Amino acid sequence: MGSIVTERTFDGLMLMVLMLLLLVSFPKTHFLGGMALSTGLVFVALTAGIAFYSFTTEATHRVIDRILRILPRRFEWFINCRLKSFLQGIRGISTVEGGVKATMYTLLVWTLEISAVALVLISFGVQLPLTGYLLVLTLASLSTALPSGPAYVGPYQYAFILALGFFAISQEMALAISIAAQVSLLGSVTIIGVILLLREQLRTGPLPSRKKLETSLEKDTRTNVPPS
Fold first, then answer.
1. Which of its termini does the chain have fewer beta carbons within 10 Å around, N or C?
2. Which pLDDT band holds residue 213 (cuts at 50, 70, 90)?
3. Over the stretch 25-38, which tens digit does the pLDDT of each residue have?
4. What is the DSSP letter of 26?
């Protein structure tokens, strides 16, 4: 869970940068203003929290231990182990090298995402400027943060209709494009994910023993090395 928070934080910062760029390119997209502000504040706060923890790991753990001492011993250990395991997962960027690597991978992933969306649009004979592809991807990414059904059905389609409407693309065409993009992008990721789960034989299992978990957490705190 901690590593997911870190990954989503980098994605959120990238999304914020794209929205600010689109506000300049499409000044009449008033709905992006509030989204950019609220999204930016959330992810800036997450980034600040992760950075603060990365530089004050031992002090943060001491504060957590002091606060949890007011609980019964059984609940103290239960919450302490899980909370520290979560915090352990967000420390992949606790060094400058780790932060730079995460930033480069984020840029690479978003470049591939934009390319994939552009290929889907081009396959329908729709040619847009680069900012057009960015608008489609940005709104589609924002739509995944809204409450929806499985695979973001509904908000995802509306994002394509809204974005492509700026370029006089009919709603029917935009709907067809959104379905094709959803099947090709989300569908392929789902299939690949299932194959990898089977290949790696990943499955849920019992939590490690108290002694083993505490030893792992203490070792990580001393070395300040992100877990593999």
1. C
2. low
3. 877 666 566 666 67
4. -
Position 228 scores a pLDDT of: 44
Return the CA Rg of the chain. 21
Cα separation, 148 vs 220, in Å, equals 38
What contacts 61, CB < 8 A, 6 or more positions away? 84, 87, 221
Phi, psi of 166, rounded to the nearest 5 degrees: -65, -20
List the one residue out of 160, 168, 172 whose CA is nearest residue 120.
160
| Mean pLDDT value across the chain | 80
The answer to whether the beta carbons of residues 90 and 3 sit under 8 Å apart is yes
Round to whole Å and give the CA distance between 54 and 43: 16
Residue 22, Ramachandran bin (φ over 0: left; ψ between -120 and 50: alpha; else beta): alpha
Query: CA-CA distance, 21 to 134, in Å (whole number)?
Result: 9
Q: Encoding tokens for residue 153?
A: 């059905």
Q: What residues contact residue 42 under an 8 Å CB cut-off, 6+ apart?
A: 12
pLDDT tens-place string over residues 154-192? 888 888 998 999 899 999 999 999 999 988 888 888 889
Instruction: Give the C-alpha separation, 38 to 43, whole Å.
Output: 9
Tens-digit pLDDT profile for residues 86-118: 887 777 666 777 778 888 999 999 999 999 999
List Cα–Cα distances, 36 to 9, 46, 166, 196, in angstroms: 14, 15, 19, 35
Q: Residue with structure tokens 């992100």?
A: 226
Alpha-carbon separation of residue 200 from 88, 92, 189, 193 (angstroms): 23, 22, 16, 10
